[in-house]
Structures are given as C-alpha cells and as structure tokens.
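Protocol step 4 of 6: record predicted structures for both targets in the notebook before any analysis. Target 1:
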Amino acid sequence: MELNIDYVRKQFPSLSGDWVFFENAGGTQVLQSTALRIGDYLINTNVQLGASYEVSQRAGERVDEGIRGMGEYINASDKSEIILGSSTSMLFRLLSMSMGEFFKAGDEVIVTNCDHEANIGPWRTFEKKGITVKEWKINRETFDLEIEELGKLMTEKTRFVALTHTSNVLGTINGIKKIASFVHERGAWIGVDGVAYAPHRLPDVQDLDVDFYAFSFYKVYGPHYSILYGKKEHLERLPGVNHFFLEKEIPYKFQPGHVNFELTYGLLGLKDYLIGLASVHSNGEKIVSFRKGAEIAFDLIAKHEEKLSKRLLEFLNCKRSVRIIGKTEWGREVRVPTVSFVVKGKSADEIPLEVEKHKIAIRSGDFYARRLIDYLGLSEQGGVIRVSMVHYNTLEEVDRLIGILDELL
C-alpha cells in the first residue's frame, strides 16, 4: 500500500509554503494536531496541578494522559518509566548525575565515537570520579559498530554501554536488540540515543530490552520536548536529582521542576496523527489503539522513506566527485533517509548556500557528532553535507534537489 502523501502533508500547515525542508534531522515540522492540543491546554487548563478544584483536576488528567500515551507509544511496561524533559542532552545529563553517584571508582563504561555528543559527553565526566571510560570506534571503511570490537572492550568491570540507535550523520540503523543481549550477558546496562531513529521507525523498548532509551519529540513532528525511558527496577535503585523528599518517587525524582504541562499534553498530537494515518490506510477499519496505529503508520513511513533514499542515493552514487559518508545502499532495514556526503575539492558549506537559493533547506557541519567527523578526517573541510528526509517529503522534492545538485557536483 502506498503512503497517502496528500493526507500526510495536510497535517503539517508549514508545508504549504515555498520551502522544501531537507534538514529534518535537526528538527521536523510540527503537526497541526500538536499545536492545537498545546493551545487548548494553555487556554482551558493552564493551572497548577494537584489542587482539589475542578480545573486543576482536569489539568492533571490531561498531563497524565500525555505521560501514559507516550508510555504506550514506546511500549513501556509502566508510566513510571517515562521521564520527560527539555532535551535529550539534558535528560542524559541528569541521568549521568544520578549514575555518577551510583557507580564507583574502578568501574568501566563504554561510549562510541559516532554518537551525538549528548550520549558521549555526560558519561565521559565519570573519569573525574575514577571510572574508566573506553571508546567503541566504528570501522572507517564500513561505518559499522562491530560487536566483536565491543567484546574486546568489555570486562567484568563494565557497568554501562552507551550508543546510538541510528547515527545522525551516517543514517545507519544499529542492531540494538542484539547488542543489548550481548551487553546484558556480560552483566552491564545499555543506554541508547534514539533521536535519529524515532522519526523513521517505532521504538519498542521492551522488545529491544534496553535499560535506558531517549529521543526528542521536536524531531518526531512534535514540540521541543524529550523523553527518557528507564527500566523501573533501575530507576528505583538510582539516586534522584530532585528535592530530598521526592527521593522515592519515580519518575519525579528525575524531573526537577516537574514536566512541562502543556507540552506533555501536546505530545498526544502525535497519537492523533498516527491513528488518523493508520485509519486512512485501513480500508474502513477503525483504529483506536495508539500502539497499533503507530505500527501501521510507521510501516507505511518506512516504505515511503526507502523510496526517497533510493532516489537520492542512486544519484549520488553516480557522481565521481561525491563520497557518501555512510552506507551507499538504501534498504529500510539498513538505514534511514539521512544522507551525508562530501564533494571533492569543495568545502562542505558551499553546497547548502547554493541550494538554499532555490528555497531548499539542507545543511553542513558536524551536527554535534564532532568526534566522528574528526575521526573520519573531515573537520578541515567543514564536516559533511547532510540531506535528511522524512516521510512528508516527496519524490518530486527529491528530484528538485537532484536537479540543482546535478549542476553543482
């Protein structure tokens, strides 16, 4: 079944303008349903929670509905496993503050050299506490994180392994379920950055069996807000970062200042959208389950995005001046439609400046994966050029970009 792209684009008011957005890995356009829910909350229930009067009770119910909805979305086992905060960077930083008090000198943690700094920097601070930090490096030729190399790094002292589900530069989908099993067999925890994965695929934290998983909703068609999942048993053991009298309350002990009320309720705009998208493609069947609707919708999304990847990668593969930084194949099981490349003899920032003259937004840089860019020897030329597509993009938009790039490359 083909994705009904006309239906999709009507749900994003900003797409009615002149610009083509191919910088979606930096932040997607926002759903109308999300904006409406946020506005509704602010207009009708903008009060403090926990009071006995009716409006406060209604506000609390709305916030709770948002939290429960996001738990269902990622298939958490309990709403207490859902921590919400301003950004993935902040949530990992708060988690590291907690873990830093829990781990001891002599323990070991492992980070990669291909993650966004949000999932590297917080754990590297452990070195100040006498905790050893090791680096799992990608293969420079294949751009893969090889599990055999992880095995060489892990010891009986390894407590935690941090990695990305999908690199925001390479676009490669890592086999998190297999890696999580490997890590758990050796007695350690695993923490996964899902920011570059979540706009394209549906996370299932129970199936993946991860200990921690985070991503940002402003890159999944929603507001500037983020989620951190943690297994309940771990969150109960870890020290909190909130007031002392909240030490036993999860997830509140990891949420200083509480959640943002209107944004938490606004997250349900994603539920509205995915159920609606699934229903449009279900031959009259009424879809009511958030999780089922999301599964149907993301299957359609993956199929459509594979076509976008194929169109762009086929073009780039034919250009002798271009080196793709990541997998050159486009299969939906292999990568998401985040495509990075460099051009022989050109600084990375030259191409986006020319492309944007045609009202097409792409970008260059290191995208906060500076360790990866340095490791690949791409810093001097300004990093990479990145075209990051999502399902609301069309083949016609890709062809428009290709027509411009064909004259520049």
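Target 2:
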Amino acid sequence: MLNNTLKPNFIACDSSLAAADLVLLGIPFDGTVSFRAGSRMGPNAIRSESAGLETYSPYQNSDLTQHAIHDLGDLELPYGNTGRALSIIEATVADLVGMSKKVLCTGGEHLITLPIIKALHAKHPGLHVIQFDAHADLRSDYLGVKLSHATVIRRVWEIVGDNKIWQFGIRSGTREEFAWSAEGHTIMEKFTADSVKKAASVIGDQPVYLTLDIDILDTSVVPGTGTPEPGGLQFNQLLQAIMELSQLNIVGADLVELAPQLDISGASTAVACKLLREIMLLMLSSKLTNQ
C-alpha cells in the first residue's frame, strides 16, 4: 500500500523511508463529518504552510533536521466509500508498523484514528490511547451509523478495552456518553488537561497512541475546525500538557479535524503546523523505543 500516495513536502521530512525513524502520513478523509466539512484539506494545507515554520523548537531545544523523518505524502482515498478508505489507511499503517516505524498522521476527520489504532494494536496489544479533544466521541452510533467521527473513541474502546483510554479537555457530548465513561470505561478529565502528568506516571513504559483533535483548543485560537466548541484550552496550556508526555513510548499519533478553509486568516493552520512539529520532536526524543 506504500505506493498509494501523492508527493510530500513538509519541512525537514526528507529522509528516505528506509532510514527514517518517524514517518509522516497525510490522510485527507472527511466522509462522516456531521457539521462543517473540509478537514480533508488539512494535510495539504499543513504541508504548504510548514514553509513558514522554523525547524527548531525552543520549547524542546531540538531541531527537525537532527532527526530522520520521511514524509510519505497523502493517501489517495475513495470518497463516498468509508469502509474502503478505512481499509486503505489500516493497510498502509500496518506496512509502516511492520517496518518498525513510528507513525504520525494528519487528518482529515477523527474517524481516521480507528484504522491507525487497529494496525498499531496488532503489534502493541497493551496500547494506551491519550486523547486531547473537545468532544467525547463515545456514542454507540450516530444517526444509526457505527463508523463516524462522533463514535470513533467508542470503536477504539472495543479494541483496547477499559482503563486504556485517557481523555482530556472534553467539554461536549451526550448525557449517555458521559455516563458511559463514568462507568469506568475511559478515564476522562472534563474541561482541562491538568492531570496529564499523573496519567503519564500511571502508563509508565507501556506503548501509547496520541490523538489530538485540534478543537480541544478554544475557538479563539482555532476557528478553522468542523465542529468548533467554545471554552477550550489556550495554545500554551495544550503545549504544556503535550510536553508532560515526553517520557512515554509514543508509537503513533495523529492530529485531526483542521478545516483550513474555514479560517481565511491561516492562523488555524499555523497552529496545526507548530503542534505537528512539537509532536514529531516529542516522539523522536523519547527515551524509549518503538521495538
């Protein structure tokens, strides 16, 4: 499946695939979006706007050019066929996991997380999931549909089980979603991400998947998203929370739900680019390995 991509161009991600420790993969899919569409434009916008970003991170005192990163490009996906699109995503990530690569994906909507986790869980059966998000995404179905960006974490739970999903910043969902989580199925922190450090200490050296829905940030920071939710984190709050994960074995991650055309200023895309850089460096500077 690795030849099913378009040309990549994110800054400093110019290592060969064979030599790379981390692979960046764009997944331009938004086939189940329930409000404002357009997140399929996210990966391309992030690549384009990355030229305005420095490769050096003063937050981590690390530079993308110090690491071997390969940008595999954007998957070509059949719009209108959700099942086929998810199969292509899973097969592509499975190939990368089979090569012992860490994988960082850009969306695209949140449903793309499901096939990525399926592929990673096959190699890492003890996988924990850390979710930064405004929405719980724990519905059993959405309008009778099981596969939706509104149900994705419920589907993930069916793979990883209880006490493996850590949710931060959640401030939107149905009464049933919050009640279901409170039954002990997920560990949810509403509104904030203050207990990330505690979560990291509990997880320890177990493998971790990080999924970041950009709508965890307040709408004043990122208006360019499909389902904006006021009352979110500020950028520095989110970045501080992400930095608390530095000692974890993050084997895969994604950044989803950027809809760049909904913010003509370009600020939302700039935020996504910077977050992507920091996540890359975080994954690569981990003291643990992907083996």
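Step 5 preliminary note on target 2. The domain at 22-285 is CATH 3.40.800.10 (Arginase; Chain A). Helices lie at 42-49, 82-98, 113-123, 152-160, 175-185, 196-203, 235-243, 267-285.
Proceed to step 6 after PI sign-off.
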